Each structure stands twice: as C-alpha cells, then as structure tokens.
Amino acid sequence: MADLFSAIPGTTSYRNLFHKQISTWSAGIPLQTSWVVRFSFPGYTQFDGFYETINADINMDSNKEFGINIQDQNTIFNSQINTLNSCFYIQSMKLPLDSFGTKDADLDAGAGGFLTGVVGSDRAKNTSRSLTIDFLETNLDFVDLIIRPWMVTAAYRGLLARKYKPFKANIDVVQYTRSIKQMSISSEKEKAIDGDSDKRTIRKHYQFFDCVPTNIPGNSLAYVAEEAKSLSVQWAYNRYMYENKFKKE
C-alpha cells in the first residue's frame, strides 16, 4: 500500500504533476457554454417545402381553424437563424441517457451460503432515451408555430415509411472548446499579438437522424414576476452518431 502513494520518479511533487497535466489540452477543463444546435431537412432545398409537409394534417385537429401560416413560420425559422448561426431559440438541451439493467443470476439463492453472481439484463429502451430540447418562448412562439404542427402531423402519419413526403429532420449538436493555441497563450502581450487567440475548436459532434417531436408540455399562465420562459420538447430519433472531432494543430 505504501508504494501506491510513493513519489513518482522524475517529479518534484504531486501538485506540480497535477498542474502540468491539467495544462495540457487533453486534460483541460472544457467550455460548458460553447455549443450550437442546427436542424437539417434531407430532401428539401427550401424551408417552404418542409413547412407545407409539417402543416399537412394540422387542420384535422381544429376544423381548418388552427391559424398558422407559412409566412410566420419562415419569419421565425429562416435559414440565417438556423443553419448559419445555429438555432437561436434553443436555450438548453439534455442528451439521451444510456443504461442497462443488472440482476442476480437465476440460481438457487444463497445455496450453501454462496452469493449468486450478477448478470446483465435489458438495455434502456428507445422510448426512455429521448432527446430533450428547451426552446425560448418569444412573441412569435417557436413551439406553437413549428413544433406543434410538426408533432400533430407526425402523430397522424406515424413513424414508419409511407408514401408521404419526409417529415423527419436531422439534428446536429456541436460542442466547442479552447484550441491548443489559445491554451498555450500565457500573457496579455501574447494575446494582443495573436489574432487567433479567441479561436474555438470542435470537441464533440453528435448527429441525431430522423428526428420528430413527440411531447410538448403544457404552458402554465400566472400573474407572477416577468421572466424569460422556455418549454422542454422531447424528440424521438432512429439512430445517432458521435464523433470526437478534434484534430491536433
């Protein structure tokens, strides 16, 4: 046990070793707020075509009085707001969990005084591994204008392959962090000289394929202090991809 905590040859102290390690890019603390989310719509070159698709069955809920028009949708979700700078209305999100169960082996419990072994069980079902995105509420409400008709149409049409035009989207989640060059800058003078000192590098990239919204929470109204409000929307998807995008400079 004493050898476990003995000094490491070639190092002066554990503090210096920790500082040296944490100063490297791979062991550095990542930025928690440098991330963006973008929607893409395979099969559509213009948003108008996708709007027509997600609005197709909305009036079945309201006897043709739902009150949503494509012009308002295009105003709140145009290409500049989404694909150029990421979706402006997304305030936070929760990536899907992943888990699997464990259980005791199916043997005579406690026979001879021995404890049974532990074996693996079912992995978390897809319905419990949903993607959750929180959208900021504005005067033209993104959830009511885009998400609600999208979900209603998807509910009427189902998620299996059909003759209908595609109504599923891909969602990209990109996380950034400081670049190696930025971490290596140690003084204000060097920062002033290096014009790329604020450059960010991609740390992670998640891509969720064939996404549709599946749950919109109720919106409570009350006479309380004014504050920015967001709604959490759950999404189903067929599959996802993860990439460690960092490339050493």
Describe the structure.
The protein is of the alpha+beta class and 249 residues long. It has one domain (30-95, 125-243). Helices cover 23% and strands 27% of the residues. The chain contains seven helices and nine strands, in the order αβαααββββαβααβββ. The strands form two sheets. Strands 1, 2, 5, 6, 7, 8 and 9 form a seven-stranded antiparallel β-sheet that branches. Strands 3-4 form a two-stranded antiparallel sheet.
Summed up, the helix count is 7
Helices and strands: which structural class? alpha+beta
Count of folded domains: 1
Shape: globular
Nearest-integer average pLDDT:
80
Give the helices and strands, then pairings.
Blueprint: H1 14-22, E1 35-40, H2 47-54, H3 70-76, H4 79-84, E2 90-94, E3 100-104, E4 118-123, E5 131-136, H5 142-157, E6 169-178, H6 180-184, H7 188-193, E7 200-215, E8 230-236, E9 239-243
Antiparallel strand pairs: 1-6, 2-5, 3-4, 5-8, 6-7, 7-8, 7-9
Features:
249 residues; 7 helices; two-stranded antiparallel sheet; alpha+beta
Summarize the structure.
With 249 residues, the protein is of the alpha+beta class. It has one domain. Strands 1, 2, 5, 6, 7, 8 and 9 form a seven-stranded antiparallel β-sheet that branches. Strands 3-4 form a two-stranded antiparallel ribbon.
